[in-house]
């Protein structure tokens, strides 16, 4: 399997992302988010390791990529997880992109990316920061930087003119749903585009959430296992609950004339244009 591969190998009809290439410099992730879906298909996910021969292979694979291709870094790990401080694979990869025609999407929870602003400023890049909670970030995402550090990174990026996407993803009933409007209030001035989604349960992630929040365990099981429905291998909240969680956020974002998208939410009445989802429309000359 190549390290640079077409995004969404499952060809999900729920996904409205444009064609792009996915790259994970590391296998697994040290941010250890309880809700992470990648743990369900990548063994030893919370024991992250650098990809073997990454730099050598990536040089070769970049040569085979079409001109103007969008590279998404990363969809099944975090390019700025703690390992990056030691190995710098992400930074070295970014250096390889300077003066090339590729476009870049970065998705991270870490302010470590501020280290690379010198290179990022030379690239056509849109940066997505995932920010889910003020009070419970250290419980939900025990290895990731705090809310304050992520907010600081977002403000710095905005100040320096980067295009920024904020992912309020996932909203989990009983865990962060009551504070998600407050989170939105903090980040709204700095994001150009917002991606929203509700938590989709996999057996292992639901188990982790239930043991970290035992007082919410019955509610989560009822909402997902009893009332929810199975869609493409994940348990979704009921349609009504997903609407109820997401619509107030949509209204507030729309009131500020900012764009938003839902990620694999299956709410077809929301007219979601292809390519709006991941914020790639913010790339220079993309549409
Ligand atoms: S940062 Fe992303 S890939 Fe890493 S554990 Fe959290 S959800 Fe999973």
TrEMBL record:
<dbReference type="InterPro" id="IPR058240">
    <property type="entry name" value="rSAM_sf"/>
</dbReference>
<keyword id="KW-0411">Iron-sulfur</keyword>
<dbReference type="GO" id="GO:0003824">
    <property type="term" value="F:catalytic activity"/>
</dbReference>
<dbReference type="InterPro" id="IPR040086">
    <property type="entry name" value="MJ0683-like"/>
</dbReference>
<dbReference type="InterPro" id="IPR007197">
    <property type="entry name" value="rSAM"/>
</dbReference>
<dbReference type="Pfam" id="PF04055">
    <property type="entry name" value="Radical_SAM"/>
</dbReference>
<dbReference type="GO" id="GO:0046872">
    <property type="term" value="F:metal ion binding"/>
</dbReference>
<keyword id="KW-0479">Metal-binding</keyword>
<feature type="domain" description="Radical SAM core">
    <location>
        <begin position="15"/>
        <end position="240"/>
    </location>
</feature>
<keyword id="KW-0408">Iron</keyword>
<protein>
    <submittedName>
        <fullName>Radical SAM protein</fullName>
    </submittedName>
</protein>
<dbReference type="GO" id="GO:0051536">
    <property type="term" value="F:iron-sulfur cluster binding"/>
</dbReference>
């Amino acid at each position: 399997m190549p390290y640079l591969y077409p995004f969404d190998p499952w060809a999900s009809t729920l996904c409205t992302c444009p064609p792009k290439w996915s790259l994970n410099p590391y296998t697994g992730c040290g941010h250890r988010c309880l809700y992470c879906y990648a743990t369900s298909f990548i063994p030893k996910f919370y024991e992250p390791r650098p990809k073997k021969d990454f730099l050598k292979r990536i040089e070769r694979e970049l040569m085979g990529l079409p001109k103007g291709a969008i590279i998404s870094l990363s969809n099944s790990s975090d390019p700025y997880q703690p390992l990056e401080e030691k190995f710098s694979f992400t930074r070295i990869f970014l250096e390889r992109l300077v003066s090339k025609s590729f476009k870049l999407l970065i998705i991270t929870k870490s302010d470590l990316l501020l280290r690379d602003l010198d290179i990022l400023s030379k690239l056509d890049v849109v940066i997505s920061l995932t920010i889910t909670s003020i009070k419970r970030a250290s419980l939900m995402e025990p290895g990731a930087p705090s809310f304050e550090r992520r907010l600081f990174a977002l403000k710095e990026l905005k100040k320096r003119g980067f295009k920024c996407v904020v992912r309020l993803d996932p909203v989990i009933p009983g865990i962060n749903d009551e504070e998600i409007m407050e989170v939105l209030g903090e980040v709204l001035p700095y994001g150009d585009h917002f991606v929203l989604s509700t938590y989709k349960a996999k057996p292992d992630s639901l188990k982790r959430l239930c043991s970290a929040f035992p007082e919410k365990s019955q509610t989560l099981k009822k909402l997902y296992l009893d009332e929810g429905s199975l869609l493409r291998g994940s348990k979704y909240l009921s349609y009504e609950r997903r609407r109820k969680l997401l619509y107030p956020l949509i209204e507030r974002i729309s009131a500020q004339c900012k764009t938003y998208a839902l990620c694999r939410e299956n709410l077809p009445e929301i007219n979601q244009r292809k390519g709006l989802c991941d914020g790639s429309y913010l790339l220079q000359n993309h549409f």
